[in-house]
Amino acid sequence: MESNNMIEVKNLTKKFGDFIAVDDISFEVKQSEVFGLLGPNGAGKSTTIRMLTTLIRPNDGTAKIGGYDVIKQDSKVRELIGLVSEKMIMYDRLTAKENLKFFGKLYNMPDSVLNPKIDELLEMLNLSKWKNSKVGTFSTGMRQRMNVIRALLNTPQVLFLDEPTLGLDPQSTVEIREFIKKLNREHKTTIILTTHMMNEADLLCDRIGIIDKGKIVALDTSANLKKTISGNGTTILKLEIPNLTSSLLNTIQSVKCVNSVSQENNSHIKIHATGDDAFDLIIDAVRAKKGKINSIEKLEPTLEDVFLKITGREVRDKADNKIVMKHGPGPKRFSQKQRVR
Q1: Nearest alpha-carbon partner for 151 in 260, 50, 78
Q2: Residue 268: enclosing H or E segment and its boundaries?
Q3: What pLDDT digit, counting tens, does each position of 25-84 carry?
Q4: Are residues 244 and 98 in the same domain?
Q5: Domain co-membership, 233 together with 215
Q6: Hey, is 18 helix, strand or coil?
Q7: Torsion of CA 289, 290, 294, 298, to 10 degrees
């Protein structure tokens, strides 16, 4: 490997029929970096990971892992990588140790290396006392920890984590995140994380690429991405209005400085606005319509806000959450109910 980059992607494209899932993307990931790919469902995150892990072939472009081409040298690439996919690959009727021995043998690992490695990883992820229990009896969090262990058996230089905490309880989520940080810190493992959970990316990633409709639409550190919001006169407010009505909501949306309004429930709204006088204009508009304001919170920009500004929609759909955009980056104004997928 000639450069400091562990992963090099150039003009990578993947089509399924007429649908372009990944559209001419290019990026690099440095050695020992935690790199995040963020985006909503269907944005192209998982398809990108599947190409980089040699599971599917691109239609165009190139990708290299550790200097090896994912198409021409796919067997070499597989020696370097581990994958934790959204789908948990385990056999319920086998014990934890039996599962791991099976997958270790697929790497042609001798027992003298494999057995100590299994014991080490079970200990690291707090599963040692269940090593002789059948995986079918495990909770979702325990199964996902097993999924991580399976991906680490061959001591990969690059670990791909595709939605590693999706559907987990809070305790299991924290455990997986802490382990990711420890793995990167102590073993210098390069980690590629796909997620639509912005707080997870904020906690873990050195740099973040935002992918939408198959394209990389932004790539930088979390801090620098947030500066694109905070540095251009943007105001983000959260208001609690107990007598919020459709008429009042329409009034707020019509204020010239307002870019978007997100209704979180019957009384709470989040407003993105631009201009030095945005705060006064919004509050005056609410009071002119006899709106009662119980609380006002001026928010610091988040990665969710960055995604909303860049793409015109939130990274994660919310149940019963009405979002109205004005003057946004999208080609049309829209009003829609967004639903959890």
Answers
A1: 78
A2: strand 268-274
A3: 999 999 999 999 988 888 899 999 999 999 999 999 999 999 999 999 999 999 999 999
A4: no
A5: no
A6: coil
A7: 30
